[in-house]
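(Protein data)
===
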Amino acid sequence: DKLREARPAAIGVDILFAEADRLSPEWQADSLAEADPRLAARLKRLPRHDEILARAIGIAPVALGIAGLDAGSEGPETLTPSLQRGTDARESLRHYTATLRSLPEIDAAARGRGLLSADTEGGIVRRMPMVARVGSTPVLPLSLETLRVASGEPLFVVHGGSAGVEAVGIGGVTVPTQPDGRLWVHYTPHDASRFVS
């Protein structure tokens, strides 16, 4: 709510709320029922924390993170639609069969969902996906999905060429990619002033 009051163009949340909040009043009520039935009854009447969070997400321009899984099958959950331009390059994308998401009521409240997943190479993330695939559906990383939510664009564009993906577009912004939809990460030298102990 405080973030929304600051009127950001979008809020990207790189946290998965995959389990119910165990500090929510309904959990506490059950453990107090025998010792203090009146307090337990009052706690049961309070709104669930996950319900409060879902309501706050629903009225703000929020993109939630999702994790790509190599096992399982994707259900009917919503992903941002995309438009394919040029060659259909979906087969060249990093493929996930399913996703791990926040609880359904929290996930459903968001305006967008973007991947938090990246593969390591020798223990280091050297390339980040600018577009990947869940099942047969292209999906953006959280960074670009947050940009899409901020821009108000209803979809994104995957530009394909003879070698695979050439770029990903959101409105007037186009990000060139490697043929597999990834982008090399150019790390800067270490700067101690960026860290707070």
